[in-house]
Amino acid sequence: MHRQGQDRLQLGELLVSRGLIDSKQLQQALEEQRSRPKRKLLGEILIELNLVTDEQIIETVAASYGVPYVKLNPRLADPRVTETLPRDFIEEHAVLPLYRVEGVLTVAVSELENLFLMEEIERLAGCKIQIVASSATDIRSTIRSYLADANVFVIDDIYEDIDDQDFSIVEKQVTDLGDLELIAGQSPVVKLVNYIIYSAVQDRASDIHIEADDHMSRVRYRVDGRLFIKINPPYQMHPAIVSRIKIMSKLDIAERRLPQDGDIQVRLDGRPIDLRVSTMPGKYGEKIVIRIIDNRNSIVPLEKLGLSPVTLQQWREVISHPNGVVLVTGPTGSGKSTTLYSVLKELSTDELNISTVENPVEATLPGINQFQTNEKAGFTFAKALRALLRQDPDILMVGEIRDHETALIATQAALTGHLVFSTLHTNDAISAVTRLINMGVEPFLVAAILRGVLAQRLVRKICPHCKQKTKPSPHELKMLNCEDGVDFELYHGEGCTRCRATGYAGRIGMFELYVPDEEDCEAISRNAHMHELKEIVARKDFRTLAMDGIEKAKAGLTTLEE
Fold first, then answer.
1. Which site in 53, 96, 195, 383 is 20 to 30 Å from 46, CA atoms measured?
2. Enclosing H/E stretch for 456
3. How far apart are CA 52 and CA 194, in angstroms?
């Protein structure tokens, strides 16, 4: 007891000597401490009284012990080194292994006076340790933010470029492929894979392609729908790169004859990013494609999608229906999921029960129940949709209507008072009618439930940094239904470093919205031929995909070539 009182006095004197508190404030804190039914440490009392901060106390104590004080930064911690100590031990004692240099493990601790703790850390680590001081608050915050999930890889503080030395180091090491797992965990390979992921996110890539031919590996990014080469590591590196990615996605590195699918969760600059990994055996080694799912870019407000003001107003009226089926159509990669996420975000309120069935779940939507299908387990779109109808839903989103059973259940849901959103692969909006009928939905039911169909494509936007005016050619004037001699200007991108000399940066949607009226519904009910239905629509003020694209070219958003 005497020892504890002496320690408290020493801390108080240290704080006074450093000018952080005065003698009167120290006495106030000691009296407050004595009045408490449960004894608290002096430092805790001082913090409660707002006389000092947790950081000031640990910095003062560190100075008295001659131990360096460290303001924790997540970049200081090597995720592999944190595994040196058991996770429960780290959380219980607020300690954090940071890095290992020449066999000495540097550990951040907050209880410098606890000699038994130091001995236990050394015993568990199995090596010499060097202590640095940090506040318990900082340590626990780092654990929560960056080590919350042992399956999350931290990709921070990545180098701006990869130098040739990294290539040559790995090239020498990979000449013996006897232990790919060991090689894949070594620093140059880890650094290179981290760089590939980091720079892909920075370049706004949607996919990473890693492939090999007979003499080199090739890393390509898909940006704005187009692939371009990022780096060409030597061929000898390819197995190590593949193995590192397989380890991160918990795939079997020994299996090179069959395709595999996995996923990786990474934390980049503090934000979570999901990576979907697909491997495929090839002639010169496995090819890997990584789909990047960045929640920050996945959910876009409706008004930012590129809908014209008139179409946006009509679309909002369509999605406001209390029941029915609303479809978004287009080929793979045309932005259908992004549009549906934007719709659900706009509709989401505490008063509505909104559920989605997806494969895979591509972005997290707060306040919305999201479910992922599992074909191998028999959890199909149809089965999930049938189960959700027993969950008192208001709005349902089905990732895709791909078969007769799913189409019928979606129809049943719409007829029983639910609003159902989904996607179809069709070339235009009106063709969705034929697709539903071909799936076995009766024409009169299609007419009864279909509220609207939004067809879309994505086109590249002109780079704003190298955008230039240009005179349209005779062919372009013909596309625009303009006569020769008409004073008219279009725009194009000259190409610059910002857009990698492409003249384009980012993408925007082209849309056509089909909202069936009474005349359309009558034609659909009697299963009119598609040509007749299109003729009926053509007589009205219907804005096609091509018309929307031309308007965007006239406005200088994209080019006629796109």
1. 96
2. strand 450-462
3. 40
Residues near 442 by Cβ (< 8 Å), separated by ≥ 6? none
Checking if the pLDDT of 175 tops 80, the result is no
Burial class (CB in 10 A: 0-12, 13-18, 19+), 561: exposed
Residue with tokens 């699918």: 261
For the residues of 359-398, what is the DSSP string, one character each? SS--S--TTSEEEE-BTTTTB-HHHHHHHHTTS--SEEEE
Beta bridge partners of 231: 219
State the residue for tokens 């934007």.
Answer: 342
The two structure tokens encoding residue 380: 């199909």
Please name the residues in contact with 22: beta carbons below 8 A apart, sequence gap of 6 or more.
16
Question: Any long-range contacts for 379-382 (C-beta under 8 Å, 24+ apart)?
Answer: 380/406, 381/357, 381/406, 382/406, 382/409
pLDDT the model gives residue 154: 57
Tokens 């981290």 correspond to 194
Q: Examine the pLDDT at 149 and tell me if it is beyond 60.
A: no
Distance between CA atoms of residues 43 and 53, nearest Å: 9
Q: Cα 432 to chain center, whole Å? A: 30
CA distances (Å), origin 236, targets 21, 215, 219: 62, 9, 14
Residue 354's Cβ-count burial label (10 Å; 0-12, 13-18, 19+) is buried
Residue 253 pLDDT > 90, yes or no?
Answer: no
Q: Going by C-beta distance under 8 Å and a sequence separation of 6 or more, which residues neighbour residue 87?
A: 147, 150
CA geometry: angle 119, 125, 131, nearest 5 deg: 60
Q: Is 8 helix (H, G, I), strand (E, B) or coil?
A: helix
pLDDT band at 151 (very low <50, low <70, confident <90, very high): low
SS (H, E, C) 188-211: HHHHHHHHHHHHHHHCCCCEEEEE
H or E segment to which residue 265 belongs: strand 260-268
Closest alpha carbon to 210 in 257, 166, 243: 243
Check pLDDT > 50 for residue 3.
Answer: no
CA distance 160 to 169: 19
Sequence-distant (6+) residues with CB within 8 A of 157 are 75
Contacting residues for 153 by C-beta, under 8 A, at least 6 apart? 79, 248, 264, 265, 266, 267
What is the token pair recorded at 427?
Answer: 């070339």
Neighbour order of strands in the sheet with 504-514: 369-372, 354-358, 395-398, 419-424, 324-329, 450-462, 504-514
The string over 45-73, giving b where at least 16 C-beta atoms fall within 10 Å of a residue's C-beta and e elsewhere, is bbbeeebbebebbbbbbbeeeebebbebe
With beta carbons less than 8 A apart as the criterion, state whether 127 and 88 touch: no
Name the CA radius of gyration of the chain, rounded.
Answer: 31
Mean pLDDT of the chain: 83
Question: For residues 312 and 318, what is the distance between their CA atoms, to the nearest angstrom?
Answer: 10
Angle, alpha carbons 508-514-519 (nearest 5°): 165
pLDDT level of residue 541 (50, 70, 90 thresholds): confident
* pLDDT band at 152; cut points 50, 70, 90: low
Encoding tokens for residue 275?
Answer: 């990576």
Q: Mean pLDDT throughout 173-181?
A: 42
**Residue 170, pLDDT score:** 43
